[in-house]
Structures are given as C-alpha cells and as structure tokens.
Amino acid sequence: MKIRLMENFRALFYAPYYAIHALGFYAREGVDVELVSSHAPGDAIAHLTNGTIDLTWGGPMRVMTAHDRDEQSPLVCFGEVVSRDPFFLIGNVDRFELSDLAHLRFATVSEVPTPWMCLQQDLRDAAIDPAMIPRVHDRTMPDNYTALRENELDVMQAFEPFVSRAEIEQAGTVLYAASSRGPTVYTSFITTRNKAAAHRDALLAVTRALAKMQGWLTAHNGTELAEAVAAFFPDVPQELLARSLQRYLDAGLWARDTAMSRQGFDRLGLSFLSGGALRRPPVFETCVDSSLD
Hints:
single chain, D-Maltodextrin-Binding Protein, domain 2, globular
C-alpha cells in the first residue's frame, strides 16, 4: 500500500506528523507513505482535488470553507492531531488582559487565517469587539519578531519557536496561550471521498500509525520528541526545539485519540463563522469521515 502525503507547511506544532515517519509507525502498519513538500500553506488542497496526491494534513477549516462554497465538495477530514490552538500572544506587558490590545502596538499572524479567526472569537467571548483592536496584519512572524525585539511592537501573535526564543532572548514573555481556550480542532488529515474509498485500507493503516504516535507521545517528553524530529528542523537548535515541544506537550496541544472532537470542531467552525469566513455553520457529518477514525 502506497500513499502520497503532502505536508501543509513546516511547523513545530506539526511535530507528531514527522515523528510518525521518523519512528517508523507507517512502515509497521504496512503502508508506504511518501512525504511530499508543499510550496505554501493550503497548496496541497489543489493537489488533492487534481489527484496528484492522496492525502494532506491541515486545518479542518479548509474542509469547512470548501463545503461552504460548494455543497458538493469532495473534501473530508479525519484523524485529529492538533486539538488545541498552538498560537500565543507574547510581549513585555505587565498584568495583561485581552482588552489591553486596544491601546497596544499589536501584530497578528499574516501567513494563515486561523490564528486571527480563533483569537477574534476569544475577544468576542470577552465582550470585546475585534473591529476595535488596531493591529498590524500584513507582516510575517519573523518581521514581527524583529519589531518586538526592537521595541516597535508591544505584542505579537506567534507560534513556537518564537515564544521560547523570545524568553531566551528576553524579548518577551507569554501573555496569552490560545490553547487555554480548550478544544479547538486545529489540524487533521484531509483527503477526498473518492480517495477514501479507493485507498481505504491504506488510510486506515495511516490512522493506526497515528494512534501509535499518540500513545508514544504520552510516554515521552519534549527532549525525546525533539530528538525524533530533529532532521525535519535543521535550522532550529536542539535545545530550542526541545523547549518549544515541551511547552506544547505541557499545554496538551496534541490529541490523545484519533477521533475528531465534535466540541473542538464546533469551536473552530464558530470562529470562522463569527469572523465572516463562513456563511453558515459547518456540519460535522459532512466534513468529517468518522469511519476512518
């Protein structure tokens, strides 16, 4: 059994996906998974629909938005991996509250839409109108981090390793961890219904490999996970990698079960609906192929 799997983009919070490869869990389940690099976040969806790959991983929001635009969309997701939001607000602010963003120099993530969609719902939950929060929304995280270090920003939204790097370099501390919100299905496998039917045995083997990975994570720490995936992150120093991954482990970022959380799915859907990216609430049964979990 062979599957062509395209990654979404290279990020530390995707570490479990790389560990499945590095630790040989796919091979143990009898499936040959070829990992293919993507050119940009979301790029893999086009490759799925034109049939050049069999599988990708990414936010279920891509499946939600596809079905929102086209009720006949073939996309489905399965196999929850990142079950909480991996982003943080970091900066040098005393006694921070979300309402303080209204008068702080604040930058959000520009590379992908989900971090802001989820944060703007957190603001609504705190009775704060997101439209009243001035923000820099068109710069990259590296550029924002440089601005934070040079005191041109008070707060930035970022994922690891920027958070641990900021602590080490005394550029900022964690002001808000989005994972504290609770279940928010952030990343899963994505395929098409035709691929799910044609490669059912192989995709079920992928799910079994994922389950083995989830079991492995419960028994190992950030240092051990960093050692397993170091080859995928050659530009991240090992100590920084371990510290970053341990933070994610401590936050309960990664799912302990392959089944998609309905609560987490609904929270993600609400965030995109309130943010104007969806016209109607996504339907779990339409977007999720639970038979593959």
